């Protein structure tokens, strides 16, 4: 096995949570080179992983919206780069037309993709010479790892290794005055994924009481206004200036705790092994959530708004020292 292409084009959370596949492949096939095809919007995420040998990207989203000639030329150039090497396998773990086309255009005679019923767009099946099926009763992230390991015939070893190395900024982006940093991701791509502002205010106040400096990022004017409504009610909380994806990642890397709704940046916090609480309101925590005892907790049933008390209990859990518990999960000090 000399070279493998992974195709996972979007979105942020999916690209982040698929990164352990690279470490798995490098361990299973020593010396193999792994390339990754991704939309330009998320290319920097793949570049944070030193295990990826080439990041192949094109402005697919932007071209779909604007149809600009410059973007078309960039896509044409990316096709040329895609075909510069012959791959032993092209693995489409996305399963839509655009990812299937990328797989089809690659110089690989063995192109693997999901079965028709597991595809995001069934017409994508035209591109594949072989098919795989995700295991049942797994969340999406573990299922991706298992799918690829089964398809290529190697065992999975150890926990997921995201291997993401965020570039260090020239100077800290947030001045916390010496306090540990907590990030609060209130914004979501859809309104039905948002948590009420009064819930966020209560959580921010609790974090300040715990000694944290609370930072609230944003990406749009509406998100800025929503964030401002939170920090104006919490002394010790700051609305950050508008930051790039890499800059937000750098702030996450400098933080001690992250809480937020189901969004890519909270998945990044989990991948960086930060204390993390993720809130699920309209999506499934069983499928998309992260759970590592005393580090990362997902709450909510995906159909209703989780109460403040549930979030506070989750915060308590990720701040618990497991060494201070007895065999029954109770505090040794309390006993």
Molecular structure report:
This protein folds into two domains: 3-152, Glycogen Phosphorylase B (Rossmann fold, 3-Layer(aba) Sandwich); 181-324, Rossmann fold (3-Layer(aba) Sandwich). The chain is 36% helix and 16% strand. The protein is an alpha/beta fold and 335 residues long. It starts with a strand and ends in a 17-residue tail after the last helix. Its main location: membrane. Belongs to the glycosyltransferase 9 family.
Topology:
Layout: E1 3-7, H1 12-17, H2 20-28, E2 33-39, H3 43-47, E3 54-58, H4 60-66, H5 69-82, E4 89-92, H6 97-105, E5 111-114, E6 130-132, H7 140-152, E7 181-185, H8 197-209, E8 213-216, H9 221-231, E9 237-239, H10 245-254, E10 257-261, H11 264-271, E11 275-279, H12 285-288, E12 296-299, H13 308-318
Helix pairs in contact: 2-7, 8-9
Entry keywords:
335 residues, alpha/beta, Rossmann fold, 2 domains, six-stranded parallel beta sheet, 13 helices, globular, EC 2.4.99.23, cell membrane, membrane
Total count of domains: 2
Number of helices: 13
CATH homologous superfamily identity of the largest domain: Glycogen Phosphorylase B
Which range best describes the helical content: under 10%, 10-25%, 25-40%, 40-55%, 55-70% or over 70%? 25-40%
Radius of gyration: 21 Å
Strand order of the largest sheet: 3-2-1-4-5-6
Give the mean pLDDT.
92
Alpha carbon gap, first and last residue: 56 Å
Say how many strands there are: 12
Give a short summary of the structure.
It is an enzyme of class 2 (transferase). This protein is of the alpha/beta class and 335 residues long. The chain has helices at 12-17, 20-28, 43-47, 60-66, 69-82, 97-105, 140-152, 197-209, 221-231, 245-254, 264-271, 285-288, 308-318, and strands at residues 3-7, 33-39, 54-58, 89-92, 111-114, 130-132, 181-185, 213-216, 237-239, 257-261, 275-279, 296-299.
